[in-house]
Amino acid sequence: MNLASIVLFVYNRPWHTRQTVEALRENELASESKLFIFSDGPKNKEAKEKVQEVRNYIRTIKGFKQVTIIEREKNWGLADNIIDGVTKVINEYNRIIVLEDDIVTSPYFLIYMNKALEFYEKEKKVWHISGWNYPIDPAGLPDTFLWRVMNCWGWATWADRWKYFEKDTNKLTASFSEEAIFRFNVDGHENFWSQVLQNVQGKINTWAIFWYATIFLNNGLCLNPSLSYTRNIGHDGSGVHCGKSGYPDNRKLNINDNPRFSSNITENKKTVEVIKKYLSQRKSIPKQIVNKVARLILKRNIF
Q: How much is the pTM?
């Protein structure tokens, strides 16, 4: 198997970074994999000490075939750091696995990712491999499934898909009909479009929603495991875009080292319905109101 290079993005969270690296190093294929670490520069004096602490730690990392560290001299910000880092590495190595500094992985995460990249490489309708899934009950569901939504808590892709990535808010908003926005929002069960609007308004500067939009507009599909191979430990207020709320996740991670992949390249309706049910149950009344307001704003400002 042609193993994908791993790209890790870090900033100023020493404890989270250590948890992420130590879990990744426990993976069976770690010693055979190349690891590229992009360390963003501090945005202010307060961040400088923690950034340096992270850099001191990553310089000690062993257990991989090769460790390459790229230290940014200035602060790029999460979005630009990821877009640039992914583009540079994927253009050289064709396929990559991407992690941020708050993603803890199962010991079989790399096996799952590399097998999925191998299985779907020539299936051009599949654009993205995710290691994470919502905390749903996987009983009665397939090992893996395809659907429209992109999740970025441990993910992978190929150069011939990533080359279409585009972060253009004006072009993006002009490309979506009201019906498309509804589907983009998992048929009204989520509000991913609000992230697009916040980028348009300059309230946030993110990258992942644009990758999802790129896939969606090209009618691409994303692979997910029914039981997650990753866990996000960043919902403690330490991250740039993750507050203290989020997806509480105390599940045991997936330890299946031989997941089954489907050759039926269509969205798995059964699993999607289970996810929709989960999303409906976790939706609070205030969030429903916010979503309704966002839709009204969208109609007035764009259509």
A: 0.90
